Give the backbone structure.
Amino acid sequence: MSFSRRKVMAAAAAVASAALVLTACGSGSSSSESTSGAPAASGAPAAGGTVTVYNVEPQNPLIPTNTNETGGGNVVNGLWTGLVDYKVEDGAPVLAMAESIEGSADYKTWTIKIKPGWTFHDGTEVKAKNYVDAWNYGAFGPNAQLNQYFFSPDGLGIAGYDAVSAEDATVKEMSGLKVVDDYTFTVELSAPNALFETIVGYSAFFPMPDSFFADPKGFEAKPIGNGPFQFVSRTPSVSIEVKAFPEYKGERKAQVENVQFKLYQSVDAAYADVVANNLDIIDTIPAAALAGNVWQTDLAGRFIEKPLSSVFQSISFPLYDKKFDNVDLRKAISEAIDRTSVIDVAFAGTRVPADGWVPPGNDGYVAGICGEACIYDAAKAKASLEKAGGYEGPLTLAYNADGGHKEWVDAACVSIKNTLGIDCQGKPYPEFGPFREAVTTKSMTGMFRTGWQADYPSIQNFLAPLYATGASANDGDYSNPKFDALIQEAVQVPAAEANVKYQDAEKILAEDMPVIPLWFGKLQGAWSDKVNEPAFNWQGRVDLPSLSLK
C-alpha cells in the first residue's frame, strides 16, 4: 500500500512535519499545558454511553460538497472517511479508503484504487462510482455547492471542469473522471498538481451513496456517510445526534456508542456547562474565563493549551460594496487596530498578532510579510485615511454572537474609533448559520469577521481557497489576476519552487489588503471528569474516534 510510485508525499509530509516541530517547541514551554490524548485504537465501540461535544448551528444540511464551515464540518468529518486522512497529531496525510494513489511523472494523471468491502451506513458498498458521482455533483454549476471551487483549476484542477461549472451548465460530468472498475478510477487534470494526494483528503472529495443522487432533498433529512459514526437526528439550534457505526472498516473505530453535538448560542454557556460537567468536550474558551487564567483553575487537570499552525483570524471587507473599493481606506483600518491590546483585552494575551495571512509553522511562512500595514501606528493610519479621502458614516463589524467574538470585536472597534474618529460598531448575528448565509450570499454592508481553519496542511490552503477569484471561501469577492496566476503556477511545481510563488502571491495581498490579518490561534480545549482525555487534532478540533468514557 503506497500513495504513489513517486515522492510527492514526501513534500506533503514535510509541510506537516514543519508544523509539528514548531508546535511541539511552543507547547513544551508551557508548564500549564496538558498533553493531548493519543489517536483511538482499533476495536469495537464501548457498550452504551454518550459523550456531549460543543458545537454551533451548521450553515447548511450535512452535505460534504456544501459544507465549508466548522459547525457543519465537525459533524461531516465524523460521518465520512475520505481517500486520505490526516494524522491527528500533525496533519500528515495517510491512506484511508484508498488502497493506492498513483500519479504520472508530470502530476497530471492519477489512478486511485479503493479498498473493497467498505460500506455506507445504509449497507451499500462504497465503489469507485460513488467518488466520481460525488465529485461531478460538487462541480456541476446548477447544484451551487459551496465547495465547487475545489474541483476547479485553482483547486484540484480536474479536466472538463469548465464544461460543467457554469450556473446554466448542461454537461454534468467532467471529462477527467473515469470509472475503470468497481474499485478503480482515474483522474486527468487540466494542469499538473503536486498537492493532489494531500488535497483529496478534504471533505469536498468524500464519496456519496446512490441514495443521495436519487433523492438529494430526502438525503438532507438523514445523511448517509461511510465514516466511524452514523447520523441519528438533528434538532435545529439544539443538537445533532450521531452513533457508532459497527460495520466501519477503517482502522480508527469509535470508542463510544453515542456522540451528541450540543448547539450553543453562547460559548459562555458552553463553558459553564463543561465546568459543571454538563458538557463533556469544548474546544474554545470565552474571554471572561481566559482573564487571569481562570479557566485553568476552573478546569484543573482537564484542559489543554498549545499553539496551532492551522488557525487564522481576520476581518474581511465586502469588496462588492463600492465604499470599500479603496486600498488606502482598508490599510488605514488595519493600521488603526492595536492587535496586542485587543488580544490582551479579549484573550488575556493568549493569541499571536498576525504578521501575514499564513500562520507560523507552515512551510513557506515568511515573518512580517504584511509589513507596516499590520502594525498599529496611529499617525500612519490617519495619513492613510486622509489619502483615501476619509470615510462617511458609521463603520460596522459583523460577527456571530454564538462564537465568543463580542469582546474582541468591541475592542477592535474601540481601537479604530479612537485612532481614526470613525464610529465603529459591532453588528451581532445570533447564530453562525444566518451569519454565514449573509456572508455567502454577498449581502454584507460593512466589515465582517472571518476566520480560517486549514482543510489540509499546506500554505496553498491559506491562500487559494480564500483569495483566488471565485474561490469557495473568497467571502469578500476579492479578485486580482496576478494573484490568480501565481496560485495556478505554484500548484504545478515541487514544494520548494511552489513556496516562492505562494510568497509572491501573499505579497500581493499585502499590497491590496482585501482582508485584515488579526492573529493566529491556539488550541484551548477542556473536558468533563466523565470522559478520558480526548485527542485534539492538528486543526484544533476534537478527534471523535478518540472519545471514550471513564
User: Anything to note?
Assistant: The chain has 18 helices and 17 strands. Residues 1-9+81-210 form a domain with the Dipeptide-binding Protein; domain 1 fold (CATH 3.90.76.10). The longest strand covers residues 303-316. The mean pLDDT is 90.
